[in-house]
Amino acid sequence: MQLKRLEAYGFKSFADKITIEFDHGITAIVGPNGSGKSNITDAVRWVLGEQNIRNLRGTRSEDIIFAGSAQRRPLNIAEVSLIFDNDGTLPVDFREVAVTRRLYRSGESEYFINRSRCRLKDIYQLFADTGIGHDGMSIIGQNRMEDILNSRPEDRRVFFEETAGITKFRDRKRETVKKLTDTEANLLRVQDIMQEIETQLEPLARHAEKTRQYNALHQEYQKCKLTKFARSARREADRKAANEEKLQKVRDEALGFETAVKRAAAEREAMQKEILELEQRMKTGAEANESLRQKLEAANREIAALEERQGQSGAEKARIEARRAELQEALVQSVREIGRLSGEAAEKKRKLTEADAHAAG
Ligand code: ATP
């Protein structure tokens, strides 16, 4: 497996995105003091999951985010990716594996494997047993080499063992020995318990016999209870059937009553309608009667008036007849007078003619 590339943005002194390609063989990074060479190894250690900020030469987690300079404002995010050419060392089905860690100034941090979000635990698992974990000896920081060279032989041996990957096996051995010791202790405890149990076996056997008897009796008792229950259930079922029959009868009767009540109600309604009609007709008859009575009264009054007028017209007739007689008499007189007068006129006329003739002569 080979580390192919490192990409960093906002990490410590790298305000701009940097990409470092690692070719086959040895790569040496050179530069003046303070130019950021150690920041690159810090970046590698950080991506691999370093949690102790002191190991990255900082005091607070945000110390690894670009803090700004005279020319540039601080950034709010730091992101570093390591891209590996995976020859099967890493337990994933990808030829190229990109591991990314991101930190926001708010303190929130994120991990990705091939751009898929994951947990820190997944990163640890990915590099477990590869010798390049954050706690492995594959990354040796500044001054560390001097410490190693000046250290005691036994400490140096630890360093070599860690570098050679032996520590991991020693740790596993320690764990296994501990498990073995625990298992032996457990075994002893089990033996103690077994001894204790053996002393209790006789009373337990007595108890077991009693329990067996109890179970047999209890079974018998349960059987009796079941039989009793079955009988009473049968009785209840018969009673229920009889009650249901009675109930059906009562229901039928109720239905008959209901029909009769409905019929009676219909008849009552029809009769009420008839009564109403009769009352209406009586009312109309009474009104007609009243009208006839009033007409009769009016006719009676008219007859009375006619009778009175008849009486009056008898007297009038006599008066008129008398008047007519008078008038006839007057007429006769008048005719006579007219006759007399026309005689008189004729006489006068004759006399006038005579006078005229006498005058002419
Ligand atoms: P030397 O050769 O002396 O060991 P170096 O090349 O290894 O130096 P580093 O120690 O990697 O240099 O880098 C230190 C530089 O990184 C310093 O100039 C420091 O100001 C800068 N630096 C560290 N943290 C940050 C940060 N959070 N923001 C900006 N710059 C930072």
Can you give me a brief rundown of this structure?
64% of the residues lie in helices and 11% in strands. It is built from six helices and six strands. The mean pLDDT is 87.
Which helices and strands appear, and what pairs or packs with what?
Elements: E1 2-9, E2 18-21, H1 37-47, E3 77-85, E4 96-104, E5 109-113, E6 116-118, H2 120-127, H3 144-150, H4 153-164, H5 166-199, H6 201-360
Antiparallel strand pairs: 1-2, 1-3, 3-4, 4-5, 5-6
Bound molecules: adenosine-5'-triphosphate.
What does this structure look like?
The chain has 361 residues and is α+β, with helices and mostly antiparallel strands. The chain has two domains: 2-165, P-loop containing nucleotide triphosphate hydrolases (Rossmann fold, 3-Layer(aba) Sandwich); 262-360. The chain is 64% helix and 11% strand. The chain has six helices and six strands, in the order E-E-H-E-E-E-E-H-H-H-H-H. The protein has helices at residues 37-47, 120-127, 144-150, 153-164, 166-199, 201-360; strands at residues 2-9, 18-21, 77-85, 96-104, 109-113, 116-118. A six-stranded antiparallel β-sheet has the order 2-1-3-4-5-6. Strand 4 (96-104) and strand 5 form a beta hairpin. The structure holds adenosine-5'-triphosphate.
